[in-house]
Design brief:
Chain A is of the alpha/beta class. The first copy, chain A, has 16 helices and 28 strands. In chain A, strand 17, helix 12 (413-422) and strand 18 (426-427) form a beta-alpha-beta unit. In chain A, helix 1 (88-101) packs antiparallel against helix 2 (107-126), helix 3 (130-148) packs antiparallel against helix 4 (152-159) and helix 14 packs parallel to helix 15 (536-548). Chains A and B meet through helix 1, helix 2 and helix 12 of A and helix 1, helix 2 and helix 11 of B.
């Protein structure tokens, strides 16, 4: 059966309204015809095993492959399977036609058929289809009477009634059905799991006055700015009290000055831990107010979940058993030898007291869900127990199937994938380090066309507070434009860490480092959102294009198209019905004009090879009349390093663009 | 884990002496080092679940992939799995080195390490490795003394001892090991399952006197002829009493003459059924004598198992419930509507009395095993219940793991593959209908390089009593030579239906038919084995080449090489160590000389690109000195349509062929 993930061990993922297309190899020994059908049901909480199966037809697609589909209409978890058996009625009907054609005596077969039809009528009646039951019973009667009259001609004619045969096939004998050896699962999320544009902002940097610690109320004043760029998720790094012990200073220095703000990921102080608000940011009321204000701007708030504590976190005193001990009895701080992070105590997920720890961590999610949060960005999930994530995400989504979780893991491929399998709704990727044409083609073909597409939903970030890629450092504003367009069009979900991104901040702490100079992680920042070079209008344009073009709201139709120039990348996306088709062409070189011939796969775009078509650049608003697969492009990095072309096939006349669809 | 078949539902297959190479993706959350190892054990009958696991090392191959292997040394079934866990010792040792290099104070870590080493010593002792236990305990002592003396330098030096660390790694803490979710299986067969050359002969046609029914004793006289051609399996169509009712006449005519011999597959008469010998063939003693004589000639006897009965079979009276009833109460004969086979009653594998039927059928195998038979060719297994085969083959091989079964199924691909998964040791294929270059490349790439290679062992037949392919009908002797060479070199197992094959009988019953005229299935045949045009010397040569060249005794190394001419096919096989490399080049056109440039993949052949090499044609004994990948061939169908080239790389001087290896 397909689709499956790891032989059915993990669920596939879909969005409300999606159609799940199922394929199964179904066959039986011997020459009998068979029936098979798709079973599916939504898992509604406790009574999950008693829920009735819904069924959908499966049709043979040749070579013993059968296909069927069902629509998922509710968030939560569905199960599905396939069942089938030999179908004596169909085998009989098929053979009867052949026998009659060969002029054989079929009296015995007709008598057998009468019994098969009557059995189908009985099954129709049991299933409540009294009308069908009646029609089938009449069919059997007609046949029987003809046989009783010894009227072979009439009996044969009656038996071969195609319409009635089609009806009988609908009521197969299910008593011998065998089922696929596993029930498979689908996790169904709301639309935002697939299509989202994130904006990461540090509330403490939102103060209108340089040097003053920003508050949630200050950050509220930024919402109209963020919303005007048409983002739909505003993601806040941790908003909790920050530890004092071993607090990191500016630029990650080991010793902090008295007024250093510390890293928001160093969670916990005397003022509280993971369910408290940093006093300088405001109160829980302020936070709820922020969530409501965001909602009015069409923004959802995503909170950071970083399961670690500073030495000052209340847990350290209250639950010392939740932390690992060093050989000398002190609590084990985080380290990646020889690096030490003495300001951070990781939780010990294998502690004897794990039940209490895991339950407490679950309650942290519940607490923020109670404050109106439905999206969480989870910090470094790969350093916590896999089993914990599978359990806690299962628990959360059972009660709140609309909750979404983004896994912030930058680690080895199998571990990245595993976290997605365990239940994370979206995942960070290697996008920040995929810059060349071949790297991009290989990686996104893997993510969108392989098994990963069934469970791993990429969320692309051209920058994060921890990652200022070399390409942005070197390439300046053209590089920022390029990486923005790539992120926003390669993937239906993407995000930027702002305002560092739109202001094209690109100074690294040191040569060879991917860390920001004066990183916001360790200090307050104050910026001019109206700086003339800001990319905000480009961002706004791109996010509007994303909203207006369903093609860009999905990844499954991503196709790369050949081009002659190794710096020119071209790919397309299309809505499933091909009513919306977008071709993106980019100059990957941030420094030079690049020209190329494209070789578009017109069939994938739904464009007839022999007709001209319109390519409407949604970025520049230019319209090109193209014909055939070979087309020329020339892209200047400083002005606009890309085309985002809405492709319309010609309907009537090439003289009137309104006739393009 | 790999290799698996259908997620572990079915076993993979191997041969005694094979090495099973296992790959597993093994990883853990966090940054700990881990250990993992391969578990395997032979299943010895009843106490299978108690058997001790043997273990083999697994080594990391990058990207979280680990590899290990074990050798299967006994026929029967093995199980294997992988287990692993985090390894605190290795994590400690890795981190310690980094800490010391960074000049950190490691007193605490050294104390922790001392305890980890001592634990490893304890585990070594428990496993009985007293020497290792002693060395590890001494290591811990040395470390402890240095620590007690506060001699940091000595303690560090002691701790970093690489040899002792390697020793400690051998005794990981298994208490937290987790294991792959399934135990996987390997069915291990004897060599003949992979490498065999079959000769099918009808004993009743072995009489020296035309028109007289041949006997098993007559057939015995043919054994030296068959053995002289270097076959190793002699396969007899059914040797049981043949039914009289509805007996088929010559050329499958519906009415038999009084003296018509009938089809051997119409099993059962008053003289007995599946465990009886046709009286005209001889007695059970004669059969045992035949088996012994064959053994002396280096031949194994393969018997036909055709689970069906004639109306005259003793079962029909004794066990009428084993057959399906027609609506009029008569027993259902075989049919493929509108075709009727009234001389054959199929068994009803779903009868209420199925246990007795299945057990009886199992006893038929046991009976012939009792007469010394270890190879069975099973007729039309796809028309019998899948479950029956899985059960009966499991039962047989549990008691007699040296038994081999060849599935004679010509049906849809998934069904062919399923039968192999259920336990058949070898399988008939679509070879008879794969004639063009691309057909052959596609089909044999699928069989030898895909998942099928793990469980499906092809046995290629250029003809059978039922199949005289169009290509042989049209192409005459050159076509027979070509198809023989293809069968014998593409696959490690092949067979011919003789003497029809070596005598190049190629007259079909009718145009467009693939049935033989005067098919041996329905009548006695009398032939001159010494006919001048016989292919027996070519067959002998080819079978000798197969025996002398290990490359031809396996399929897994099959590689196709490009050639310019669509009628010229080239492929190679190699022994695993590349000590024996064979390149086959064929002219697929039975009518015309064909010339071509070959483009050999020299790396796959183990030939350095910059040196000349010798290509020794084992068919013609010609030797060519070739250099580089491009080489020219010209093949004449009437003389020899192929080269079978033993390829030897040059060792010392091109002047002395003895120096080629």
């Amino acid at each position: 059966m397909r689709p499956t993930v790891d032989c059915g061990r993990f669920p596939i993922k879909r969005i409300v309204g999606d159609v799940v297309r199922v394929e199964a190899e179904v066959f039986v020994d011997g020459h009998d015809e068979l029936w098979c059908r798709l079973l599916y049901r939504h898992q509604d909480g406790a009574d999950e095993d008693d829920a009735e199966w819904s069924t959908a037809e499966m049709r043979p697609a040749g070579n013993d492959l059968w296909r069927g589909e069902f629509k998922v209409t509710k968030v939560g978890q569905y199960r599905f399977s396939v069942e089938g058996a030999v179908d004596p009625f169909q085998s009989w009907y098929r053979d009867l036609a052949k026998r009659i054609q060969a002029d054989q005596d079929v009296a015995t077969e007709l008598a057998a058929g009468e019994r098969l039809i009557r059995a189908a009528a009985r099954r129709a009646a049991i299933s409540g289809a009294m009308g069908d039951a009646e029609r089938l019973a009449q069919w059997a009667d007609t046949l029987l009477h003809a046989l009783d009259r010894d009227d072979a001609g009439a009996a044969q004619e009656a038996a071969l009634n195609e319409g009635l045969a089609t009806l009988a096939v609908r009521y197969p004998d299910q008593s011998l059905a065998s089922r696929y050896r596993e029930e498979l699962s689908v996790v169904v999320d709301r639309e935002k799991a697939r299509f989202s544009a994130w904006y990461e902002v540090f509330p403490r940097s939102c103060s209108p006055h340089q040097g003053r610690h920003g508050t949630l109320r200050d950050c509220e004043n930024w919402l109209s700015y963020i919303a005007s760029m048409k983002f739909d998720v505003v993601y806040l790094p941790p908003i909790h009290p920050i530890g004092r012990t071993y607090r990191k200073g500016k630029n990650n220095s080991a010793v902090a000055e008295a007024d250093d703000a510390g890293s928001p990921w160093a969670i916990g102080g005397p003022e509280g831990g993971h369910t408290s608000i940093h006093p300088l940011l405001g109160t829980l009321d302020d936070f709820r107010h922020f969530v409501e204000a965001a909602k009015r701007h069409g923004l959802e708030v995503a909170l950071d979940i970083a399961f670690q504590a500073t030495p000052d976190h209340p847990y350290v005193l209250e639950h010392p058993s939740w932390f690992r001990k060093r050989p000398d009895g002190s609590i084990q701080y985080a380290e990646n030898p020889p690096k030490k992070y003495e300001d951070i105590y990781p939780f010990d997920f294998e502690t004897e007291d794990w039940k209490a720890l895991w339950e407490e961590l679950r309650q942290i999610f519940e607490f923020w869900i109670g404050q109106g949060v439905r999206i969480f960005r989870v910090d470094n999930p790969h350093t916590k127990a896999f089993l914990f994530w599978e359990w806690v995400i299962g628990e959360i989504k059972q009660k709140h199937p609309d909750v979404l979780l983004l896994a912030e893991a930058f680690t080895r491929p199998h571990v990245m994938y595993r976290l997605a399998k365990l239940g994370f709704s979206q995942s960070y990727t290697y996008f920040a380090w995929r810059n060349t044409k071949q790297e991009i083609i290989d990686y996104f073909t893997e993510l969108t066309q392989g098994e990963a597409a069934e469970y791993f939903r990429p969320n692309l970030w051209p920058n994060t507070p921890d990652i200022l890629p070399e390409f942005l450092q070197a390439g300046g504003r053209p590089a920022f434009m390029l990486r923005l367009i790539l992120a926003a069009t390669l993937s239906a979900s993407y995000g930027i860490y702002g305002p560092a991104f739109e202001l094209c901040e690109n100074t690294a702490r040191a040569p060879g480092s991917e860390e920001y100079l004066n990183a916001e992680k360790y200090e307050l920042r104050h910026r001019d959102l109206n700086a003339p070079d800001s990319l905000k209008s480009l961002i706004t344009r791109i996010n509007r294009i994303r909203r207006e073009n369903p093609a860009l709201q999905t990844n499954q139709t991503l196709r790369f198209h050949p081009s002659d120039n190794p710096f020119v990348l071209s790919y397309s996306k299309a809505s499933p019905d091909l009513s919306n088709v977008v071709v993106v062409v980019l100059n990957l070189d941030a420094f030079h004009v690049q020209k190329s011939w494209l070789d578009l796969d017109l069939a994938a775009l739904g464009i007839p090879a022999d007709r001209s078509f319109q390519a409407h650049d949604l970025l520049s608003d230019a319209r090109f009349l193209w014909q055939g697969s070979r087309n020329y492009v020339e892209l200047t990095p400083e002005s606009l390093p890309a085309h985002i072309l809405r492709v319309r096939r010609r309907v009537r006349s090439e003289r009137d663009f309104d006739y393009y669809l």
